[in-house]
Specification:
The structure is a single chain. The chain is of the alpha+beta class. The chain has 3 domains: about 230 residues, Immunoglobulin-like, CATH 2.60.40.3140; about 160 residues, C8orf32 fold, CATH 3.10.620; about 200 residues, Jelly Rolls, CATH 2.60.120.1130. About 15% of the residues lie in helices and about 35% in strands. The strands form 7 sheets. Strands 5-4-8-2-1-10-13-12 form an 8-stranded mixed β-sheet, with no helix packed on it. A hairpin with a 3-residue loop joins β23 and β24. About 40% of the residues are buried.
Length: about 625
């Protein structure tokens, strides 16, 4: 059982949302008939107690296992946050009590608004298609700010979802709905002044879509609550910031004896950017990343002086320390909460939407977001996984949400290959990697053994190119912005040798999937996990042969570009140059239409060949 618990913990910590979860996550598999038929009845009561509002909820959830695939996940989970309490769990299989229940404690990617505990209901071994699982439980939350967010998932048929909120008559309850696809039909009822009801019925399973990471759910339901017409949930940037300020200082300060820390070093720099970069580099390289999952620390940092002397801290601790050091140097650096997971811009704020903290600075000339937690990210840019994500700037005077934007100035990856037509299996290259690719490589170097790292590096770099094997990578230079490698390259299967001619592909990159064409007729955005810019140059000694000059340029816009050229570089050598860039992670409307057109031409041009004869 202990081994089984460990497996469950790994699966659940990766796959489940970070805060109260009332079901297993959606699968990416598609079927014409729903795998699971779900009914959910949630009865919530909001009562004032001792000058604050508490939440008590009763949950009644039924699942009909409707296919063989539904039997693969033989458990359900209930998430418990550190501000809530789950009790009176009662589970049944076809009306017979389920005895196998246990608890696991996830280790989240970051200790910020994370789930404290997961209650796991393990199904009997003899479950079969058509069986019914029913479970009920009670949840009590002592802080109105943490009123749960609910989701309707795509891999299940929702027979009904009913959320009834009983409340004092001086309270107003609003249901804030966000749909990942087209809006669903629903009803909002107010049978009495103290009861608000939201009802969904007969919501079918919906097909998931490639390049749309939010398609595993159909609706997100948040609850806004006002008392005497004044909002009491943290549903706006202002309310969230006021609430968070009541828990921890938003302009943190070092103790008197620590105020001069690093100030002499900072005085050597003239620009704000240089000073902030020095602080950022010091904090992320000096302080060990350690998660302290005690309830008192899950959402608020330790004091700056505690962090300074402890030698460790998580994301909010690091952002807090940077802010305090910068303040002593006359710079106002604010903490900013952000989600690493959400691709859709939520119209409201809520503690459960955020799982990371970074830093923000602004003056008359520039705005700077930076992440003192990401060990390998250069100061001049944000990590790629935060690009296009919503950040909430915790500026007490002007709290606001913004969409983060990473820059794509230099190529993420460029490679210059030199070789000879007579020995294509023995070419040499210099590679330069930056930004996200650089971070991946540096992280893997610390994580893997030397042997594993070598294999990973060879496979990872080679995966970007069609029939090109890159190996024997040796680090040539490593700085804050880039890593350079020398490498051995085998082009013997990349270049096709005929009797009198040789053919060089016009498109060398393996960056496209034909699945993109499946998205042509829907109205939803294309969402990508990264921006990318790749340059490739191949210079070959050709002796008496010459290249037939040629080029390929696909329809270009400000967010996507591809070109390749072939020409004679000198009397006895040829030069092939390739460039691809996609500078957007989210494409909608006309941009999406043009990108799909571009993709079709890219895919159709894969047989383009340059000739050497």
């Amino acid at each position: 059982m202990e081994e089984f618990k460990g497996i469950i913990l790994i699966i659940l910590a990766v796959c489940l949302p970070l805060m109260p979860v009332y079901d297993v996550n959606a699968s990416d598999e598609i079927s014409t008939e729903a795998d699971i038929i779900v009914s959910k009845n949630i009865s919530m009561e909001i009562k004032e107690k001792g000058g604050r509002y508490i939440i008590k909820s009763e949950y009644d959830i039924q699942k009909i296992l409707n296919s063989n695939r539904s039997l693969e996940d033989d458990f359900s989970t209930i998430g418990e946050s550190y501000v809530g309490d789950i009790s009176k769990i009662n589970a049944k299989h076809n009306g017979k009590k389920i005895k196998s229940k246990f608890e696991v404690y996830p280790s989240p990617a970051d200790a910020f608004f994370s789930t404290y505990k997961l209650h796991v209901i393990s199904y009997p071994y003899d479950i079969k298609v058509g069986d019914t699982i029913n479970y009920t439980y009670r949840e009590e939350i002592e802080e109105i700010t943490y009123v749960p967010i609910y989701k309707l998932y795509n891999d299940e048929y929702t027979e009904f979802f009913k959320l009834s909120v009983r409340h004092d008559q001086n309270l107003t309850v609003e249901f804030d709905l966000l749909f990942s696809h087209d809006p669903l039909d629903y009803e909002i009822q107010h049978p009495s002044p103290d009861l608000s009801v939201l009802l969904f019925q007969n919501i079918p399973e919906r097909k998931t879509l490639p390049f749309y990471q939010e398609s595993n759910w159909q609706a997100t339901i948040a609850i806004k609550i006002s008392a005497n017409d004044s909002l009491i949930t943290a549903s706006t940037p202002q309310k969230f910031t006021e609430w968070y300020k009541s828990l921890t200082p938003l302009s943190p300060e070092l103790l008197v004896n620590d105020k001069q820390f690093m100030q002499d070093e900072l005085a050597q720099y003239t620009s704000v950017r240089e000073k902030l970069q020095h602080i950022n580099n010091y904090v992320k390289s000096t302080y060990r990343y350690v998660q302290d999952l005690r309830p008192s620390h899950l959402i608020t940092p330790f004091t700056p002086s505690e962090i300074l002397h402890s030698g460790y801290g998580d994301c909010k601790d690091r952002a807090c320390l940077v802010s305090a050091i910068a303040k002593e140097a006359g710079m106002n650096v604010f903490m900013a909460t952000v989600s690493e997971d959400l691709f859709i811009d939520y119209p409201y704020t809520h503690p459960y939407l955020y799982n990371h903290v970074i830093c923000y600075y602004e003056d008359e000339t520039e705005q700077i977001f930076f992440d003192p937690t990401d060990k390998y990210q250069s100061f001049n840019n944000i990590p790629d996984y935060l690009d296009q994500k919503q950040a909430l700037i915790l500026d007490p005077e002007n709290p606001r949400t913004v969409i983060l934007e990473s820059r794509l100035e230099e190529p993420s990856f460029e490679i210059f290959i030199k070789g000879n037509l007579d020995s294509l299996s023995d070419c040499n290259a210099v590679l330069t990697v930056r930004e996200r690719i650089k971070s991946i490589i540096q992280s893997s170097k610390e994580t893997f053994t030397s042997y594993q790292y070598t294999n990973f590096l060879n496979d990872f770099i080679s995966s970007y190119f069609y029939k090109m094997t890159i190996s024997q990578l040796e680090e040539l230079e490593n700085n804050d912005e880039e890593i350079k490698f020398t490498a051995h390259v085998d082009l013997s299967t990349f270049i096709i040798a005929g009797k009198s001619k040789k053919y060089v592909p016009g498109i060398p990159f393996t960056l496209f999937s034909s699945d993109i064409l499946k998205r042509e007729n829907d109205s939803l955005a294309l969402l990508f996990d990264k921006k990318i810019k790749v340059n490739l140059r191949i210079q070959l000694k050709t002796d008496s042969l010459e290249v037939v000059p040629d080029s390929l340029v696909l329809p270009t816009s400000h967010f996507v570009h591809f070109s390749s050229t072939a020409d004679n570089h000198s009397a006895d050598s040829a030069l092939f140059e390739y460039s691809y860039a996609r500078s957007a992670k989210k494409l909608e409307g006309d941009e999406k239409f043009r990108f799909i057109q571009f993709s079709r031409e890219y895919i159709n041009s894969k047989n383009k060949m340059y000739q050497i004869k």
